[in-house]
Amino acid sequence: MPTRELQGDQIQTYFDNFTKRFLTDRSPESIDVEVLGPEFGDQRAVEGARLMGISYDPREHTLDIFHEMGDHRMSGAQEVWVREDEDGFLNSIEVVLPEGDREIINLQRMNSRRRH
Fold it and tell me: Does pTM top 0.85 for this prediction?
């Protein structure tokens, strides 16, 4: 599972397609979101929550991860990198923020059922 950088307007389309493909069927799948960053250290921001969507606003360069307990926003994204499972489900997102700060979001499916 190679890591690849998403470019420009590809970012918004990528996360829209991911959300439509994996997150719109009201399945009970849940995820763990781990945030690694200078402000947070290494901590689990969310554990066992249902992932509801991921969106990107190209005007503000803001990535939002929506889950049943709220949302996690990363503003001023300079770079966005993703790593996928074989079926296209994301297992990590790395966002490079202004001044070189980074946040890494690790997504782990709690339900082993895979959809296509």
Answer: no
